[in-house]
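We modelled the chain as a single entity of 788 amino acids. Its sequence is:
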Amino acid sequence: MSLATTGGGGLGAGAGAGLSVAAMAHGGPNAAAIATTQPSHTHHQGIPGATSTTAAPGTSYAALGADLLDKNQSLLSAKSVRNVASLPIVAMDLYADTAAGSRVSYFPPMDEESNGAENGNDEMAGLMRALAKKKRGVLAKSLTGSVGLNVTLKKNDGDAYKSVKRYLNNGEGYGNVLKDAMISNADEKKKEGEEEDVVIIPRPHLLMGARRINELNPAAKSMLASLLPDEDSNNNNNNNNATPAIDQDDITKSISLTTISLDGNSSSSSSLSSQQPKGDDYDRVAYQMKLHSKKKVMTILPEEAVGLLIAQMKKNVMEEINSTGDGKNATTTTTTTEDGEEDDEEEYMDYPPAFAIPGWAAMDSTLEGLMDAAGGRGSSCGPSLHQRSVAACVGALLPPPITATNAAAADGNNAPSKLTKLLMETMQTKDVEAQKEATRAAALSRNNPNAEPEEVVPFVPLILLVGATAEGIEISAMQISKPQGPDTELHCPFGNISVVSSVCYAHDDYLSIMESAVDEIREQIGVLLPESEEPTAIVTYGSIGTQVKLASKLKSVLTQYGKDGQGDDEWDGWDADIPIISTKEDCVSLGLAVLAASVHGRVKLVVSEKSKDGKYRPRAKLAVSVQDVATCAVAVSFNYFSGKEDKWTEPKIIFDFDRRVPAGPYQIDFTAAECAAHVRYGNKTKNANCIGDESVLMDEAKKLEGSRGIPEREEAAMNHRFRVFQRTSRNDDRWVRVGDDMKPLTMQHSQKDEGESGEDNLVAIESAVLEISLNTVGMISTRLITNG
């Protein structure tokens, strides 16, 4: 199931305390308060599965970075990061709206010379290496090659069909698919008028992990409208909106969408095209394609299609590195498969990946699909996942690269980006003004011996990041602080990025909802930062054409704000004077590469700290610290009547939008006595789902304790169900169910058979505690603690 059961989940300090089922699900006195609490977030739990001790820091700066790890990245471990230090990091912006060299960037491998033990304690050598790196400028690089939004495969080609079939059956053979079947740029085929010779799998990233077609976001439904099945068939099957698979021998077009069932025992989708969906968590939305007119229909999962795009991007990075010599050259080995076929296995599949996730796509099911797509041949290092708006912020702050035309002028003195320069100048000006004001206040209070000197607080600028594609829009407010010069860390001019709020919508016409989205983020800033000034700058990101439209709409909205604020004493200062800064199309992927490099310890700060023995030793720190907020909401619902659809309680939010993440674990207590009390009350009133009054529930549950209440408690425990929901749109009441229904008050009996229903081996237990956690990009993890 998609609710990953972990040994602890991501623990964020300040997470809300647990509530009983009654108080949480039925509007208890503290439910709303806890759901809306904004916790401070200064500490995080260690990486699940990581060792409790780390290797002692090495003497070289590179060795220091090998043990540096962002604790927010729960899919990484210190060991896996060290294992891929000699490989480039591939940063992929899967959700970009252009393929013109903007979707893929990379960060080169760690310098092997600086990572060697032979460097010892030679501080002068370390200083010379640092100066050399400064002269080289930004190490993150974007590719000029194109990888489209779609997967384009050759049609009616024997080798292509054979390679794709082997890939779907065995989950390997990327190299052969890229070589024999996949066309990297479909636009070239279209120009030649040869569309009939290819099968195009459109925008598979929009469908990753999707269980039901009716749960697709509005943008996905609009983009893929021509592939959706008939509405009649989509609404059958016991209201599960599960679409029957297409007849293998009766298909009218080369590509279409359907819903299949993965039974959990098969590793590929190609053998499951005839399996009917069951309305559970094994259902998947999938593509069906007629790749060869004389062969049967193939079924390919969206994550399998995305896996091919990821392989193509990694291969492009390998080819770029091999041509430029920017790191270790990749090698190609040829192996023989079980059926005797030769298969190209490429080292580039081991390159560590990084992904930028837009807020409107931050769903547990989507991230689960992305994990499957990024797995490859059992990837040696998990992906680093970052919010797309944060990656855009880091990319906008990044100094421009040193090229052949400006290398002499730069001479190691890297010019700041437009945004960095504006923020530095504004911070300096504001701090000078604040210091003058404090000096004047001190002069006026000299005659008052009891007056305390006014503390000068450094100015922290607020910026808006506005990005859009044909699939959605996201607007994020961030505070930037802790400036650090190029001598400290060239790639990260500021050491701290704190996200305040993020408004995201999946929509195929972003301009139509942009004004309301800006109104919403402005309102959120007023609530969360009531004393803040207007934004220092608004930064747009995306394709050039998209940014032009965004800037034009923003100017119109800001101009109206200025008119409305005339004569208003409470006006917040938002008007057309706020500068709008555009960025290059590779802003997101370059920023993502830097964020991933920071996570991997390739971009870092090295500070000297005093040890217990009085000696100063170097210690590595993250080059940039990011405090994220949730771009989704998570809610829970309860059912005490065997899962009857009309007996579910209204979803209650446990993690709301703009909550500091990682968040949790959030504890929910279950007891059989309380469940039995709900059942007795529901049977008595006929139409009630639960007891709404906390004190009444406690009294009724107490009556059911003891040996006389065992039969009712046992039956109630067996009939209790629990659901988790998620959504990314603030103004949308549509919740998406995450995983199957849970039965937290049951456990498997080791000496009972499952039976025909698969549940005959379950027995009731008296109590349980469920812990739920949420990470920075919408992944949910749970941990069930029972007394069994």
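As a brief sanity check on the tokenised model: The CA atoms of residues 108 and 477 lie 31 Å apart. The longest strand covers residues 494-506.
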